[in-house]
Amino acid sequence: MFVFKMNFFKYFGNIFRILFFLIISIAFIGCSTVSNVKDATIKTAKNTAHHTTRIIPFVGASNDGMIRKVAVVSFDNETVLKQLSLEETLQNTIVQYFSESCPSVQLLFPGTPGFPEPLKLIKSQPLETFDNLTIVKTGRQSGMNAIMTGRIVNVSTSREDKGILWFRETREKLQIQFYLEVMDMETGAKIFDARFVHEIDGLDPQQIQAFRDGQPTISTSITREIDELGQDMARKMCRAILSQPWTGFIASVENQQAFLPFGKSSGIEKGKILNTFDTGEVVENFAGQQFVLPGKKIGKIRISRVEENFSTGEIISGENIRPGNSVKLPK
């Protein structure tokens, strides 16, 4: 009987010690969680997978010495919270990044010299809703290498319960849904397509309630996080654009002379030799979108005259060189 009592108290003594240890551990974690709620963190979600965004410096300078021209068709805010001008914050950050850290890419906006007027019709809609071949033809004739669009499509709030038992707490989050796309003018395919939800955690409860009431205010913390997000997206877009070989396009041909919609501003120089490629086959995907495959090499031209945004090339080899053919630097 005595042994039974000893084992009984020993058994429950062990259980008590385990429970005591768990309670102390949970209390420590709970206190740590509460203190960390005050620190805003940046999280992005893509395909329901969340990860912490880290800004990685990237200096975008092309190895070929050429400048890629990108027409920024639109940066729009499709939400009911247009008064916050979140799209302007995002656009300004991206523009500043390209200006300072990606000098081999020149962004052109509606109203600025050199922006293709027909591209102003593309606004507030995903690029796939437009005819790819029409966009490609317009971009090529205007000397563009790519087209960029950006949209903020939704701003909402969410709640997430954390912890267990009496250490349970509710964390409020602000969610901003972005679309950023870049289309290549050689093929009509998107070389950058980011559709994601950006979560801002740890905001003041009054800020969250203001968003729910439809009377939001933009805070320094929100501006700072969108700014960091814009830098990260700009770095990735810069890398995607520079990963494509520089490509120009022939606007017209007359008497063995090829007239080109690019010049000094693109880095072209008199006397430079460019390979000429035929217009490739047009293919269609399952959604009915059409794309242009790269064509075969058909000749060469030598640059004979260079202006700021135009140049002329003498056809020195090849036949059937015509408008729409692409030109590239020799490898």
Give a summary of the structure in a few sentences:
The chain contains five helices and 16 strands.
Can you characterise this structure?
This protein is of the alpha+beta class and 331 residues long. The chain has two domains: 40-242, Rossmann fold, CATH 3.40.50; 247-328, Beta Barrel (Thrombin, subunit H). The chain is 28% helix and 33% strand. It has five helices and 16 strands. It has helices at 2-36, 86-101, 132-141, 205-212, 220-242, and strands spanning 42-46, 49-52, 68-77, 105-108, 146-162, 169-184, 190-201, 247-249, 252-254, 257-260, 273-277, 282-284, 290-292, 297-306, 311-318, 326-328. The strands form three sheets. The chain has a seven-stranded mixed beta sheet. Strands 8-16-11-14-15-10-9 form a seven-stranded antiparallel beta sheet, with no helix packed on it. Strand 12 and strand 13 (290-292) form a beta hairpin. Helix 2 (86-101) crosses helix 5 (220-242). The longest helix is centred in the first third of the chain and has 35 residues, at 2-36. It is elongated. Mean pLDDT is 77; it is low at 1-12 and 20-59.
Mind sketching the topology for me?
Blueprint: H1 2-36, E1 42-46, E2 49-52, E3 68-77, H2 86-101, E4 105-108, H3 132-141, E5 146-162, E6 169-184, E7 190-201, H4 205-212, H5 220-242, E8 247-249, E9 252-254, E10 257-260, E11 273-277, E12 282-284, E13 290-292, E14 297-306, E15 311-318, E16 326-328
Helix pairs in contact: 2-5
Rg from C-alpha positions?
Answer: 28 Å
- What oligomeric arrangement do these chains adopt? single chain
Q: What is the CA-CA span between the terminal residues?
A: 93 Å
Average per-residue pLDDT, rounded, comes to 77
CATH fold annotation of the largest domain: Rossmann fold
Q: How can the largest sheet be summarized?
A: 7 strands, mixed
How helical, in percent, are the residues? 25-40%
Q: Specify the CATH architecture of the largest domain.
A: 3-Layer(aba) Sandwich
How many helices?
5
What sequence of helices (H) and strands (E) makes up the elements? Answer: HEEEHEHEEEHHEEEEEEEEE
Q: According to CATH, what is the class of the largest domain?
A: Alpha Beta
Strand line-up of the largest beta sheet: 2-1-7-6-5-3-4
